[in-house]
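step 3/5: co-fold with flavin-adenine dinucleotide
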Amino acid sequence: MSKIYDAVIVGGGIIGCSIAFQLVKRGLRVLVIEKERMISEASSAAAGMLGAQSEFSSDSPMIPLALKSRAMFPQLADELKELTRIDIGLVQKGLIKLAFTESELCELQQQYQFWKTLDSSVRWLQRTELHELEPNVTAEVSGAMYIPNDGQVRAGDLSLAFAKAASVSGAEIREYTEVVSFVTENDQVRGVVTKSEFIYADNVIVAVGAWSAKLLRETGIELQMHPVKGECLSVITEQPLLQATVFAKNGCYIVPKWGNRLLIGATSIANTFHKHVSVQGIYRLLERAQQIMPQLAEAKWEKTWAGIRPQTGDGLPYIGEHPIYKGLWMATGHYRNGILLSPITGVLVADLITKGKHENMNLSSFQLSRKNGITLIT
Ligand SMILES: Cc1cc2nc3c(=O)[nH]c(=O)nc-3n(C[C@H](O)[C@H](O)[C@H](O)COP(=O)(O)OP(=O)(O)OC[C@H]3O[C@@H](n4cnc5c(N)ncnc54)[C@H](O)[C@@H]3O)c2cc1C
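step 4/5: write tokens
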């Protein structure tokens, strides 16, 4: 009889690794299975923004999760550094949202009205104030909102740190191994099936990002999910041009990174798993980014890349147990917020598995069985 794990996590992205870290901390025997290399998909492509406030303009069940998760980063950065020596590059210099057109201005004002009643630190900026904060951002904006508490990290380093922290704390990691199905007995999961073997576990956590719907079909349910490709590029400037992240309402953002790098993102192309970077995508990003910061024209080209975001039908992630099989858990569909939500997702899933609940957090909106969450395959 082969070894039985307390938990097998399918998917070695940031979500799987954060869960693995939390489960080994609670004393469970954990195996992470990844079909390629660890951290080789969306989690290494992300810009790393912690946009707990910039992402929302009206009430959403995601907001408590996002705020709680963002607040976990300072302590998490120290904990991961001590365990792994990896610096996740936490920067807490805020985020400025910009509007250029009349309709963007209207949307941004609505977003400001929403946040100002909840958080007095969120400010509407006059042009002179914008110039004082970020002298290299164009003055040709129709509106600007400052969110001082939205920060950023290096997404790839955070993901690697979770993986390494899980591993040094006792988790096993198996790369280049694809899970194709599940071992089940009546209404209980007993493990996973790879292309070459059965691996047994009391709990199985599916954290395979954009590939979740395909794998879950094996369990008789259809998740409402689709992939959304995002393309990015980076350039290097002689001098640092930005302190805060700037995010235009038209979807283009510029994130200042180490070594005078500027990360410029991101396109959104639905229903494709192809990670090629298109000329059109990069051309549009550069056009929009130069509108935000004309000096970009002088910057040195570095590289381009793309990743596949996991999006759900109602925009909310799936965090919870399978409606048919006990011990089979889902943590997927984090779309544009998987880096931000990684700390809280790890804690929530680990608490659900070890305690059967999570105090102080209502997770009903994220259950698979929510309205229009899944359909049963007959
Ligand atoms: C361009 C871009 C910019 C982004 N910017 C931000 C940002 O600024 N802030 C933010 O919070 N989020 C951002 N995101 C979103 C974030 O990257 C994702 O939400 C997050 O990485 C999802 O993590 P994941 O672990 O679920 O998925 P992934 O990182 O995709 O990991 C899933 C893993 O599962 C593996 N897998 C799939 N099928 C199987 C199988 N059958 N067996 C074994 N393994 C399998 C895959 O190979 C993959 O490694 C961005 C995304 C993109 C693409």
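step 5/5: annotate
Residues 95-148+226-312 form a domain with the D-Amino Acid Oxidase; Chain A, domain 2 fold (CATH 3.30.9.10).
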